[in-house]
Design goal:
By secondary structure, the chain is of the alpha+beta class. The chain is 46% helix and 23% strand. It contains 14 helices and 15 strands. It has helices at 27-34, 36-52, 54-68, 70-75, 113-118, 143-153, 155-167, 195-214, 216-219, 221-232, 236-263, 305-309, 334-345, 360-376; strands spanning 2-3, 20-21, 77-80, 84-89, 95-100, 106-111, 120-126, 135-142, 177-181, 267-271, 276-281, 286-292, 296-302, 312-319, 327-333. It has a seven-stranded antiparallel beta sheet. It has a three-stranded antiparallel beta sheet with strand order 3-4-5. Helix 2 runs antiparallel to helix 3 and helix 8 (195-214) packs across helix 11 (236-263). It is globular and about 65 Å long.
């Protein structure tokens, strides 16, 4: 039995085994926007095909649009029972993604710009595996319904509910505790991360691929030769200096923009009611995730070389049942990272404890093994 959009009540009701629901019809608009980078080769192919035969271009467009927009929405169903969450999709090749309720380790809410404009959210349910196949995704769900489902699916919420039913008493009503939030002064650490340079490299690669597909390299060969002739007349030290400054400035600006987009409105809150850490961040694309404190086994203080110079660090959690180290603090002052780490780990003295150096013999053996392993391994032959 298939029903349209789910009429969520204030208290979530689990589905019966034969109940299936569709995602929001606005998935038809959101999906093509999210897949736009993957669709660029197809768009280029249709444009070039239309140059010689416009009829073929029209036919291909008429076939591609429904396959990309309407068909995925029609063939996608989901259900949430008391035992599992299932998403069924696929027209020719049927796929069923399942997450058992007792194996759920994380539930994340994401809302990109199209989602926010249309009042939607995306739910990613993780079961603790290291592969993408361990994640069940519900894309394009109304925001209010997604928030209710998010609270319902949290493994800690289920555990707390069972405790209340068994004892008849719940945890004391303690307001959430804000452990930290983004400060504008932290923006000074943004240029010292390498995210801007990685973004510049990715953008350059995408632009090069597009230019190659469109034949712009051949058209710009003459202009490139003229520019090279002009640069050749400039002294080499000047060219090198200007190039290095340009790379550093562009990388710093991209790092600054990426920091603002990713970590704006960042906050880390401890919810005493169900023992979770709530992380919220994002300017255009918002993210909200929960981490069960009982699964936290420690914290990871990361100090990259460039950020160490200005006294910055980032903090991640070491948690069981998580494929990645959940973020606890973006690049921020190292003192703030240590403070948050001590609050999360309920001890954290190891972050400030002095370390003992290895002896000369141990250092010599480590260097010998490192160099001999690099020189003698089959991959180096």
């Amino acid at each position: 039995m298939t029903q349209p959009e789910r009429p969520f009540a204030d208290r979530f009701r689990d589905d019966s085994p034969d109940e299936w629901h569709r995602l929001s019809p606005w998935m038809i608009a959101v999906r093509p926007i999210e897949q736009l980078p993957q669709l660029i080769p197809l768009i280029i192919a249709i444009v070039f095909a239309g140059r010689g035969a416009p009829d073929i271009s029209i036919i291909l467009t008429a076939i591609a649009i429904p396959l990309i927009t309407i068909v995925p929405w029609l063939v996608t169903r989901y259900q949430v029972t008391d035992e599992h969450v299932r998403v069924r999709s696929g027209l020719i090749t049927r796929k069923v993604a399942t997450a058992r309720r007792d194996r759920i380790r994380s539930v994340d809410l994401t809302a990109s710009v199209p989602h926010r404009v249309l009042g939607l959210k995306k739910i990613r349910i993780g079961t603790g595996g290291d592969k993408e196949s361990s994640v069940v995704e519900l894309n394009a769900i109304p925001a209010a319904d997604a928030d209710r489902l998010y609270r319902h699916l949290m493994a800690t919420a289920v555990r707390t509910a069972n405790t209340v039913e068994a004892t008849g008493t719940g945890p004391p009503s303690t307001p959430p505790e804000q452990l930290t939030r983004l400060q504008l002064s932290w923006l000074r650490f943004a240029p010292f991360s390498l995210t801007g340079f990685a973004a510049a490299a990715a953008a350059g690669g995408l632009a090069a691929q597009f230019a190659n597909e469109a034949g712009l390299f051949e058209q710009g060969a003459t202009a490139a030769e003229e520019a090279f002739d002009r640069i050749r007349d400039i002294p080499v030290p000047v060219v090198v200096t200007v190039s290095v400054i340009a790379v550093v400035v562009v990388g710093a600006l991209l790092s600054f923009g990426g920091y603002v987009l990713a970590y704006w409105n960042f906050s880390l809150v401890r919810n005493h009611q169900d023992g979770t850490l709530l992380v919220r961040r994002g300017l255009l694309t918002t993210n909200a995730g929960s981490l069960d404190e009982e699964r936290v086994r420690g914290v990871h203080l990361h100090e990259p070389v460039l950020m160490r110079v200005v006294g910055g660090a980032r903090l991640n959690a070491i948690a069981t049942g998580s494929s990645k180290h959940p973020l606890l603090l973006p690049p921020a002052p190292v003192d703030e990272a240590v403070r948050v780490g001590q609050l999360v780990a309920h001890d954290g003295d190891e972050l400030t404890a002095p370390l003992d150096r290895h002896g000369a013999g141990a250092l010599s053996r480590r260097l010998t093994r490192g160099f001999s392993g690099a020189c003698c391994s089959p991959s180096s032959w």
